[in-house]
Task: structure prediction
Amino acid sequence: MRIVTMDPEICVACRNCEYACAFKQAGTFERRDSNIRVSFYPQERVCIPGTCVHCEEPWCLEVCPAAAIGRNPETGAVEIDPDRCAGCKMCMLACPYGAIRFDAKARVARKCDLCGGDPQCVKFCISGALQFVEAEEAFAFRRTSLDAKLTDLLGLAKGGRR
Amino acid sequence: MKAVIIGNSAASLAAAEAFRRYDRASELTLLAAEAGPAYSRVLLPYYLRGSLPRERLFIRGDADYRCLDARTAFGRAVTRVDDRRRTLTLADGEELAWDRLLVASGTRPVLPRVRDLEGPGIHTLWTLQDADRLLPELLPGRRAVFIGSGFVSLQAAWAACVRGLRVTVLEALPRVLPKVLDQTASALLEARMRGHGADVRCAVGIERVERPAGRTPLRVVLSCEDPNVDADLVVVGAGVRPNLSFLEGTAVRVEAGGIPVDERMRTGVLGIYAAGDAALGPSVFGEAHAAHALWPTAVEQGRVAGANMAGHERVYAGSLNMNVAEMYGLTVASMGRFLENGDPAEEAVVEHDPRTGRYVKLLFRGGVPLGGVVLGTPEDLAVLAALRPRIRAGRKARLVPAEPFGGLHRTLALKASRR
Result:
């Protein structure tokens, strides 16, 4: 399967991914409808795109008390079935990456579903920070390494040493 | 090899699925006293509130059990386990042999010792049957008294509020949700509940229940100065006990809170494992036998038990308590340890906005996060979620106290830049 990888060093916080996602997922250009989030810290001059990495052993899927989270057999995406979701937010407490959001209108949790295998965020990314790559090839992209990278970036911005 | 699982909820299902990952050949049987396919107890308050249709409570169907290649016998209680002959007996007399047995039979509610707390109008909320009995009673204008203020009770009380009942919550301890919230958060939630018209009384004892006019209404007589409460229905949520009477006569050690198990969910009797609410397993904080009767813990323990039953050695890193619910428009959550115990190395980082009622507290010891409390919006959960792996690992994760929650990534990057 393929996943969306994120490189905060390349991201320019244009937010095209957010708009593309919101349009595809909800038919709006409201950032709150997007399943990908770009956190922008102007002081530190750091922007960090964040979306689901469709974990090998997704804990959100395991702990969902409504059995609403499953893996799409075709795309491999970890998906939330909005009809089954009770809005209990256990998945939000389970995901350490903050990749699940709450849709306050529909009262359900939402997350990336890889747009059925054609992620719009990647298509509209202008800097190349988002890539849609085979999960095996993305081994260099590990959340732990991303965490380390973020630490480095923020450290650098504050005048620390790499 | 014959594997038998007693139970049909979070721990049992996770165990059955983990077992089948490593063993497709052995016989697998799931037994449960309750009838029907598995449903989710966690969702019962949502059903009461009307936000989830009944059919959505069911989390497995016939196809799922077939896919597991599991024989099922639901609606048939286990009455006795023989650990020498390695058999068990069902209520209808059938005897089953087992080589590996998982006890994941859960708990049942207990009524506090209050005189005449029984009969018509008295409810518990634990099973689907309980919810089915309670739902038609939740009629607008009625008076409902909730005894106990645990997660289930308070969510049910909210459901009653939403349905237009007049709600009273009686708690024996000085504050609501004593196991899930700290003092400040309890007080804020109580204020919120009162704002929605609920009558919340803490530190009250209940003397007896009277029926001045025969059946109903009931009168809950309090043992303190508070005026007594008249009620059309009483919902009792004042604790649970494990369902383990069928283990009498076996060598399995059973304590009041459940069966102590090791990090592989073994009970100490060869071939017998326990998981879920009826088990007392290791916690991340080093306790050997903690009672974390929670859905995520049950899933984790079930997975460990199932793998080990299939001969695949798997060790549990310990349970980390976590709770989340929505009540009266507030997202209420907690995780790990969030109460200061006077250790000078402990530091609480608190963000409180009295205007919105938002309250987020994280507790650290020597820079290592121990847990936290959230009263706020769903977005506030991200900070607890991000800390979870660090609480588990005991890894340092300091926040810059001046800007504690200035974005999730500051939390992640933490104080590394100052190290």
